[in-house]
Amino acid sequence: MSNIIEELYYGNLEPQELTTEITPKLKKKLSVLAKKEEELTVMLPEKERELFVNYVNAHNEFSSISNSDSFISGFQLGARFTYDTFISEMKR
What we know:
Layout: H1 2-9, H2 24-43, H3 46-91
C-alpha cells in the first residue's frame, strides 16, 4: 500500500493538477537559510567547505526520506479514519 502513496508523494501520480505556491512566510525562511548557507560556504576553508556541503546534502537526503515517511504515515492514518467512519458503521 505504501508504494502507491510514495508515488503520490514524489509527484509521480497526479490525481488533479495543483499549483503549489510557497507562502510568503516560508519563502522568507528559505531565503534566510540560503543566505546563511552561502555565508558559511564562503567563510570556510576548502576542506571544511567540502565537509559542510556534504553535511547539507546528507541532511537534505535525510529530510526527504523522513518527510516521505511522515506523508505515508499521515495518509495511512487518514485512511484508517475514513475506514472507521464509513465501513465500521456499516458493520454495526
